[in-house]
Design a protein that fits this description.
Elements lengths: L4 H50 L8 H14 L7 E6 L4 E4 L12 H8 L4 E7 L5 E10 L5 E10 L1 H51 L14 H49 L5 H33 L7 E3 L1 H18 L3 E5 L7 E3 L1 H17 L6 E9 L4 E8 L29 H11 L3 E7 L3 E9 L1 H21 L1
Helix pairs in contact: 1-4, 4-5, 5-6, 6-9, 7-8, 8-9
Length: 488
């Protein structure tokens, strides 16, 4: 429960909140106590100022007059409930108090002792009495005309109520702080339920998906970033499931594609091993072995090319080439096959085309793959047409291969160039040939487009930029890269 994000959230959030609340409580306590003490101090100073009207100039001629005046002042003192008024004689003994009780002569009076040494005869003190009670006291020395002390007036205020008020205020502040922490804890529990728990569930689901259980699904509970993440994980599981099925189908297809020629080769090899066939049978067997070996070689090379493309290790031997020559050679390779299968391969060769910048063998591989697919999916008596022309608007050479075969459904067209995908499972093929062809065309800065209708036919258009166009684009790219390097 308390680990990961939850642990960090608790430590960070509660650590900060507790620290802030503690600081505020301490500051509030100090402030309240300071204001309360200042108020008491001001009250004492006001009483001392009032004393100047009882003893003008804080003077009195003799001790007898002092005692009489002080006694009357004590009787008329209006703040007896808030503070204690003491009359001290010239010998430092308390003679009268406003409380009416006998004074405790053992209690120290530091403020009185200090006032005797001060020029203005005034002193203030805050401390504890012998009883342990904390008080604030002020003393003013009354002198005669010769500046000789004839007595003193002392005001004493208990700080019990002030301290109690500070304590109660601190308790209230602590209580409010606890309420704030409780609210944050409640909010945090919601946070944990709404974010941490779904994230934990996502983590567990992702682990199961990583182990191959693609049927795992997350329930979207919130329409926010967490909900979007749920959708993304569900989509990822769906895509992985489809990719896994495609991969398994691909492995099955490739295994079948490899087994078929191997079976034929093995069968004819065993036939010739265990008996000496006649010349016609021998030639037929050797023809099958050579044909199936070529087919096997083509499958393996296709797989190797796909692997190199996936890892970025496919090396392109780019040079200035005549693209018509490569198209002619590819068509020549399929003429005999088209005749043997009862299909029409039509090609209207143009007189001349500008050169292109590309890999001769790789482009021929693209044309062979497209023509092979066209013938493969065209029924007997069908027609495959090839057209080459220059698109002056785009400055590209376009090679169009059209057939009137079974066609491709509109649902399959967006996926037809994906790796492992095979729209028609009835026809032999690995499902990666068109993906390899598409990547090769992209490496030539071109594009491969497919337009098809089910039971009508398919048209494949290979667009390759002309040599001039490609060189200009390459120079522009190099200039842009050099400018970026200079900026850095």
């Amino acid at each position: 429960m308390f680990k990961g994000i939850t642990k960090r959230w608790i430590i960070n959030t509660f650590g900060v909140i507790i620290a802030v609340i503690t600081l505020l409580v301490v500051c509030l306590s100090v402030l309240v106590q300071s204001l309360t003490y200042s108020s008491i101090e001001q009250a004492l100073l006001n009483r001392n100022s009032e004393l100047s009207s009882v003893f003008p100039g804080y003077r009195c001629e003799n001790t007898a007059d002092f005692q009489n005046t002080a006694s009357k002042y004590v009787e008329d003192f209006m703040f007896k409930e808030n503070m204690e008024l003491m009359v001290i004689n010239a010998s430092g003994r308390v003679t009268i108090t406003s409380t009416g009780f006998e004074p405790d002569e053992t209690t120290a009076m530091p403020d009185y002792e200090e006032a005797l040494t001060e020029d203005d005869g005034f002193s203030q003190w805050t401390g504890k009495l012998s009883s342990g009670e904390k008080v604030m006291a002020t003393t003013h020395i009354i002198k005669n005309s010769n500046s000789t002390p004839v007595g003193a007036i002392r005001y004493v205020v208990s700080l019990r109520k002030a301290n109690l008020y500070t304590f109660v205020t601190t308790l209230i502040a602590i209580f409010i702080g606890i309420i704030i922490i409780a609210c944050v804890a409640f909010s945090g529990s919601y946070f944990i339920r709404s974010i941490v728990n779904p994230v934990r569930e996502m983590s567990e689901t992702a682990k199961k998906i990583a182990q191959g259980d693609f049927d795992q699904k997350l329930t979207k509970m919130y329409d926010d970033e967490i909900g979007d993440l749920c959708d993304s994980i569900n989509d990822m599981a769906k895509e992985l499931d489809e990719s896994e099925k495609l991969k398994n189908d691909f492995i099955s297809r490739v295994s079948h594609e490899l087994r078929t020629p191997l079976t034929a080769i093995k069968g004819w090899a065993e036939t010739m091993q265990y008996g000496v066939p006649d010349r016609i049978t021998l030639e037929k067997g050797m023809s099958v072995i050579v044909s199936e070996s070529s087919r096997l070689t083509g499958i393996v090379e296709e797989l190797l090319d796909f692997s190199k493309l996936q890892s970025g290790r496919l090396i392109m031997n780019m040079q200035k080439i005549d693209i018509l020559a490569e198209v002619d050679e590819a068509i020549y390779m399929f003429k005999e096959r088209a005749l043997s299968e009862g299909k029409h391969l039509l090609y209207d060769e143009p007189e001349m085309m500008p050169p292109v910048y590309g890999d001769r063998n790789r482009l021929k591989q693209v044309f062979i793959n497209v023509l092979d697919n066209a013938l493969k999916y065209t029924p007997e008596g069908g027609m495959v047409g090839v057209q080459v022309y220059q698109d002056f608007k785009e400055d590209m050479i376009k090679i169009i291969v059209a057939d009137n075969g079974c066609g491709i459904s509109q649902d399959d067209i967006p996926k037809i160039k994906d790796k492992f995908y095979k729209a028609n499972q009835k026809v032999n093929g690995s499902g990666i040939g068109l993906a390899v062809a598409d990547e090769i065309v992209k490496l030539h800065s071109g594009h491969l487009d497919i337009d098809s209708s089910l039971d009508v036919g398919t048209t494949v258009t290979v667009s390759i930029p002309t040599y001039k166009n490609q060189i200009e684009e390459e120079n522009a790219r190099l200039i842009a890269e050099n400018n970026d390097i200079k900026k850095d």
